């Protein structure tokens, strides 16, 4: 019988940069710490554990620091519910787990935003970060023609990564206008390392056509994407491809923070300067508090780890660094804001909910997410609205509403371990 | 990493390096569709991060496994289209 009950002074959910930094800080303060993550690797989706160790010195350094910190690592452990304050219910391949905490740090990261356009459900269409992640773990991409579209600095990084794995990058289409991205690049003078990163990426991709103000409108193929039609304000054109990597930047994973009772501000978890949420003893760091990237997540994670350990002075010493990354974060949001044309790509027949195959035309007649869910089943499938619900918040301005347990599809056996999920 | 893990996808033998996710093994086995949607459309991985559930497959008889978040293990039996 494997261990089922766990108890720690500080429990951190998420083993990405924010969670790792939080765990290192808390362990340094002598606390009994555990990091819980639903993947089998460390580093979250951005560093992807073992593969990243060889290629990314920053990831390697932090993952090694975490391993040496004394923090317990509960991998392949998906948190599915928070039955009451101080307790998480989770699922592991060997069975359910109950994890008790005195202080909780939520570092649940972000996911990519997907928006519906004609043909977007064809196999061979991935999120850029998603395809990058799959390729890092063996997905065959060598010799494949890949179009990259959507928005955000991730597009260049993914193009570079896929090219290194032998993909032929056909083109990159960034929906943001050049003027806005250029203005953001100028502001980066405060973060020279980001500029050098950008210049290095661009230099390695000089042979790849990069278009500003362009976006995908229609994918075609039988059983697999064969071509993508892109458009700008004046014309449209079609490119043959074997894969399309398309995503519209990142959105925070706030399901667990909501399940724990944290208040949001806009789309993000509300935190005070010590990264404390509105729930006593619960902290939040990294992308759920605002999309700021790895460095921002590392600093916020450190602050949360120290603050949760009662070492406020150490946390406060990191405030200035965080302020600087928060300015970067604000610039990012402004530069890559989504254009309104993206709200009109889906036709009435285009599927909006991929789990339940609900077309856009059926959903758009409703006035809110809850009503649309009840009457069309959109957002009621296995992803629980993480894809379509997030899209409707951009498309129609709907709020995602409340989160009900379990926050992930769970086995009945796991649910039976606790008498009352609510 | 080294070549090392043997598994089967829809009965077909696939050999993958250590650290390969099941989704990649399915692609290496030549499958582009991982499941059929409610209306019968073929679907494959979208998010690659365990969120969208489009890549779910049957692993050793266990349904609804996220193939993008599961590492290949020796002797695994993977079936698509659950």
Per CATH, the superfamily of chain B is Beta-grasp domain
The parts of chain B where pLDDT drops under 50 for at least 5 residues are none
Mean pLDDT over all positions of chain B: 93
Shape of chain A: globular
Question: What is the spatial order of strands in the main beta sheet of chain B?
Answer: 2-1-7-5-6
Number of strands of chain B: 7
Quickly count the helices of chain A: 16
Briefly note the CATH topology name of chain B. Ubiquitin-like (UB roll)
What number of domains of chain B?
Answer: 1
Under the CATH scheme, which class of chain B? Alpha Beta
Number of helices of chain B: 1
CATH topological fold name of the largest domain in chain A: FAD/NAD(P)-binding domain
The count of strands of chain A amounts to: 21
Sketch the topology of chain B as an H/E string, one letter per element: EEHEEEEE
Q: Compute the gyration radius of chain B: what is it?
A: 12 Å
Fraction of helical residues of chain A: 25-40%
Question: How far do the termini of chain B sit from each other?
Answer: 31 Å
* Helical percentage of chain B: under 10%
Shape of chain B: globular
Characterize the structure shown:
The complex is a heterodimer of chains A (422) and B (82). Chain A has 422 residues and is α/β, with parallel strands linked by helices. Chain A has three domains: 5-111 and 251-332, FAD/NAD(P)-binding domain; 114-248, FAD/NAD(P)-binding domain (3-Layer(bba) Sandwich); 346-395, no CATH class. Chain A is 35% helix and 24% strand. The mean pLDDT of chain A is 92. Chain B has one helix at 22-28; strands at 3-9, 12-17, 35-36, 42-43, 56-59, 62-66, 77-79. Chain B has a five-stranded mixed β-sheet with strand order 2-1-7-5-6, with helices on one face. A two-stranded antiparallel sheet of chain B has the order 3-4. The longest helix of chain B has 7 residues, at 22-28. At the A-B interface, strand 8 and helix 5 of A face helix 1 and strand 4 of B.
